[in-house]
Amino acid sequence: MRKIEHIGIAVKDLDLANKTYKAVLGAEHYKTEIVESEGVSTSFFKIGESKIELLAATNPDSPISKFIEKRGEGIHHMAFYVDDIQSEIERLKKEGFRLLNDIPKPGADNKIVAFMHPKDANGVLVELCQEK
Ligand code: ZN
Questions:
Q1: pLDDT tens-digit map of 105-121
Q2: How far is the CA of 51 from the centre of ligand 1 (A)?
């Protein structure tokens, strides 16, 4: 894995969170994007090499709705940039980690993504991402 690409934060109200993070970071978000297949509406901030992804649910069955119900708003996942997502998936599986999806799927911000089971990483949902 090359670097932390972004940190994902689950929020209830994207517009309100955009205002909050604009004030925190001193920068405007540079894009918003809905990923309908995941039931999320996202917005991205960039600070130096790092990004913050705010995630709000688009429907009550969204994984983000369920996360907020259980744990409240807060850090939802950590995303690592990889050069070859398929070989990273195979490497992690060989190490005994469980992947939530073996086949990379489309994510926000022009990426393909795969997630590791949070129970296998001390409660952290790990995302692998690669440029499409
Ligand atoms: Zn993400």
A1: 999 889 999 999 999 99
A2: 10
